[in-house]
Amino acid sequence: MFQFFKRVKTVVGSELNAMLDKAEDPVKMLDQFMRDMESDIREVESAVAKQIANEKMLKRKADDAQALVEKRQGQAEKAIEAGNEDLARRALEDKKEQESQANTLNESWERAKRDADQLREKLDEMKKEYQQMQLKKDSLKARAESAKTRTKMNRTMSSIGNDDSKRGFERMEEKVMQFEAEAETSEDMSSASKSLDDEFEELGNSDVDDELAALKKKLGKE
Length: 222
Hints:
It contains seven helices and no strands. The protein is mainly α and about 220 residues long. It comes from Gracilibacillus kekensis.
């Protein structure tokens, strides 16, 4: 189970490029790795809880056996004081059996405690690694999204500047120039079609007035 974390670290690190080469979605893959790690952590937490419960049970039994040893010792002393040697002997015999059980239970408890401590340490390591991988996953996801955005932008920009786009733009520019030429031609034709009377009218009424005044002066009609 603990080897899984090493495998995940390898995949997220050195094998990320291979994932991309295979067209796998790194964001989805990273999310799946994190879910697998969470599942492993829950399994280890369950194992730790069971081991701690076993440790406490063995400790309680060892303490009870030791308490019975001390009780039998006290009872043997009371029996001697009361002059009942046979009762004292039976108390000491049971004390000896309880001591043996207490020693066995105590050894079992110590082993269980070492195992529980090791599992707790492993669990702490797994949680720390998970937190580190979570931070790295967030960073990798941001990088992946950024790369996707840059790729999309580059493709869009390349399509804007391709030959088809340029040719289309040039055609539209030629159209505009053609429209401008047609407009200038129509203006020239309009000017050429003006009549003689139109041109005289453009001279204005001032020349006619001067000529009229000169004619009246000549005829003495001023």
